[in-house]
Amino acid sequence: MYFSGFAALLSLGAATAVAHAGQAKRDASQPYFDIYQGPNEQDSIINDPSTQLDYTLSGGEAYPNPYMSDRLGTTGPLLISSTNLIEQLAHFVRERVPERTVHAKGAGAHGWFEVTTPVAANYSMATVFSEVGKRTPVTARLSTIAGNLGNADTVRDLRGLGFKLRTEDGILDWVFLNHPVFWLRDPAKFPHYLSANNESIYQVMRTMSDLGTPYGFRHMNGFSGNTFRAVKADGSWVYIKTSAISDQGIMNNTNDEAIVQAGVSPDFGPQDLYDNIAAGNYPSWTVYWQTMTPQQAENYKYNIFDLTKEWLVEDVPLQEIGRITLVQNPTNHFAEVEQIGFDPANMPYGLEPSEDPTLQARLFAYADAQRYRTGVNGRQLPVNCPLNPVANFLRDGAMNFNSQGKRPNFWSQQDMLQLAPRPYNDDNHTIWTGGAVKYLSTPTEIDFDLPRIFWNGLSERDQNNLIYNVIWHLGQASDLAIRTKQCQIFQHVNETLGQTIAMGVNVTL
């Protein structure tokens, strides 16, 4: 009786299922479920106050109290069924993505880049520059370089200025430093100690001046350092360097002021940026290009691919192209500042890399650093996502939330992805002579040219501050040989400079 009754129930259930299947028949051409409905729902409440929402687990399930756990009685052990507790603790120890090895400490904001002159359009076909008055959304991240997330941002260091422009033709990342040069021109030296290299002395002197301790992030300039190319629709091109000059003017701390600021307000840079934007005092940077034809580059006194050299403005004038203005603070620092990733290889048509060796290394290293930090799909994160459609064959991977639908992950002949027309022929943009070699540059006397120009251009006060700063830092080196070697390099720049520093650090030259 029991079995036959159970069989009858099964038969009834099957019949009911068949009937429901018939009723549920639908038009297969219409989508049954939108996989982005959930994310869109979360987006719709992102700005709602907590008072309008009920506490849930991460799966959306209601839960009576975030402090509750399951346990045996009121004094017994906790149970593994304490989903709320386990979820909170497991997430807590995984909240941090790996911090940046360099540029770990930073601040950010949103705004726009506005074309202010037709200069860029005269050199480049990139539509971001196509007309005066055109605005492109920008997110900026301003940062120190050395040190970790907990470091004071007033320490002596270089600073970074990253600007992500979301153009109609894709992302354009401007990745600048607050100095027009860097410590090296051989990229394999990057992970190593640098100041003892003769070619580094110009950057050493700039960093040891008060330029090494800027007053927050608003009062510093930005420079591409590397050489790029701007290309017109007819394929003609020029070399360019880009500068972003602070409209707030340059302000620096002295060494003593920076030390005090590090103790009083170690997060001064982010706080100063946030407070000024909140008060409507929007910071801005006027953007300039310097340009050289290939012929001018061949005849220039410095190698234009040498990152330890700048193009002097008296030789290569600045030409204004636009202005960056920051007007909106982030609402979530992690999502909008920490997750942003920059890649100098992000350039729309009309802009191209040059053979600059440090730039070539950055074209790989920057994107790869972000793959390590935020994963292979980090460019799908809202702060990194382009505003124009992305269509390629990259699929799956960790944290993929936009896997390009049902389109094939290969170049299918049945559903062939189209190709945009190539706007210009760059096959002969550069021609190399010679074979592949293992290369390391050799310092020469020309490496001391810019340091001498810099020293002679400083006021007496700035010269004295540079000497004081070097003595303060170098004097902490316990090894006499290190102090002596560095003093000899300073002496080669300028006799008085070297001898004064040597006296201050107890070295005889």
Note the topology:
Elements: H1 2-24, H2 37-44, H3 83-92, E1 106-115, H4 119-123, E2 135-144, E3 159-167, E4 170-177, H5 201-208, E5 222-223, E6 228-231, E7 237-246, H6 255-264, H7 268-278, E8 284-292, H8 294-299, E9 319-328, H9 333-338, E10 351-353, H10 357-374, H11 449-457, H12 460-474, H13 480-493, H14 495-504
Antiparallel strand pairs: 1-2, 1-9, 2-3, 3-4, 5-7, 6-7, 6-10, 7-8, 8-9
Helix pairs in contact: 5-11, 12-14, 13-14
Quick overview of this protein structure:
The chain is α+β, with helices and mostly antiparallel strands. The protein has helices spanning 2-24, 37-44, 83-92, 119-123, 201-208, 255-264, 268-278, 294-299, 333-338, 357-374, 449-457, 460-474, 480-493, 495-504, and strands at 106-115, 135-144, 159-167, 170-177, 222-223, 228-231, 237-246, 284-292, 319-328, 351-353.
Question: Can you walk me through this structure?
Answer:
The model is unreliable at 1-22 (pLDDT under 50). The chain is globular. The chain is built from 14 helices and 10 strands. Strands 1, 2, 3, 4, 5, 6, 7, 8, 9 and 10 form a 10-stranded antiparallel β-sheet that branches. The longest helix is centred in the N-terminal third of the chain and has 23 residues, at 2-24. By secondary structure, it is of the alpha+beta class. Strand 6 (228-231) and strand 7 form a beta hairpin. Helix 13 runs antiparallel to helix 14. It starts with a helix and ends in a 5-residue tail after the last helix.
